[in-house]
Amino acid sequence: MTFSQKITSWYSEHKRELPWRETKDPYKIWLSEVILQQTRVAQGLPYYQNFINNFPTIFDLAQADQQQVLKSWQGLGYYSRARNLHHTAQYICENLGGKFPDNYTDLLKLKGIGSYTAAAIASFSYEEPVAVLDGNVYRVLSRYFGIETDISSFKAKKEFQQLADEVLDKTQPSVFNQAIMEFGALQCVPKNPDCKKCIFKNSCFALQKNKVDQLPVKLKKTKVTQRFLNYLVLLDENQNTIIKKRTQNGIWKNLYEFPLLEVNQKTDIEDLMQKITENYSNEYYIDNISVFNQKEVIHKLSHQELHIRFWKITVKNNLKDGIPLSETVNYPFPIVIFNFILSNLTI
Q: Both 157 and 52 in a single domain?
């Protein structure tokens, strides 16, 4: 059997039963692919089901308030994807009558849909013979064919795409694309794959050359920025607090947070209390300052490592524009703040 025949045969025996594999609806396939881009299936499945329950059709998503969309996305990270989902749903409904483009080229023109997602929708929904290229596919192709090109390099995308298109089973692109991704997710995993049970154990370059743990090659490392964030939970005698929407570009745009004091470096508790007093005593009649967590919460993003402390600031004056503390759970927060609310504040 050929490479593609072996992959699809393996898939027919080992594939997971997942709801987005039981439909040709481009809306549901699009939604699943965006959710799963940086999320494992086990984590992404309940989000997918929740989205489908909240927004059964693309029209429901388009008509929803963005705050509702962000709340449904809360915990997945990469919130720009949720904003792009909402924007593109509105565009498709307003300009295309609610119908997705039926080909790869036109799908690429939509905001938030890159080459991988366009290929997935085009092949899964419309059986267009275009190969998907995600991390799983890079890994399988690199190991099997012995490609040592750095996958983070500029030329890698073209090289791997050409190879993926060559091995694609053009008679059943949907099945093949799902098969090779599933093979990478379940069998040809990043660390310690069970090569003895692999269907390619007699033909895989990496296994024959003892390079399984060296492929694929990825030399470029992401520079991680350290940030030190102090969130101020202001409380007046009526148990009202202040939250603010993040409107600036960057992480967590359009999500909510407590007033923020960011410092440039790791700072001890006493100095931080002094900074809070200096920065906020003119705006609020501060009665008492205490820290919820002596030890920083470390929250890791792809390019940033956040060192977070939460502060309880009781004030004597009524908070203008304050909301009841109990209502904070209804707003879309970054998951690290939302988890703090659930764990530490009396709701």
A: yes
311 strand-pairing partners: 232, 291
CA atoms lying within 13 Å on the CB side of residue 102: 4
Per-residue pLDDT tens digits for 166-202: 999 999 999 999 999 999 999 999 999 999 999 999 9
Torsion angle (degrees, nearest 10) of CA 240, 242, 245, 246: -150
pLDDT digits (tens, 9 = 90+) for 308-347: 999 999 999 899 889 999 999 999 999 999 999 999 886 5
Q: Are residues 174 and 244 in the same domain?
A: no
* Contact of 204 with 187, CB cutoff 8 Å: no
DSSP characters over 251-296: TTTT-EE--EEEESS---HHHHHHHHHHHHTTTS-EEEEEES-SSP
Decide the pairing of beta strands 297-300 and 304-315. Answer: antiparallel
Question: Where in the sequence is the domain holding 300, given as residue range(s)?
Answer: 225-344
The active-site residue out of 17, 33, 94, 237 is 33
278 in catalytic set: no
The pTM score is 0.90
CB count in 10 Å sphere of residue 341 = 19
Let me know if 340 is exposed, middle or buried by CB neighbors in 10 A (0-12, 13-18, 19+).
buried
For residue 177, the tally of other CB atoms under 10 A from its CB is: 26
Tokens standing for 339? 């988890």
* CATH code: domain of residue 240: 3.90.79.10
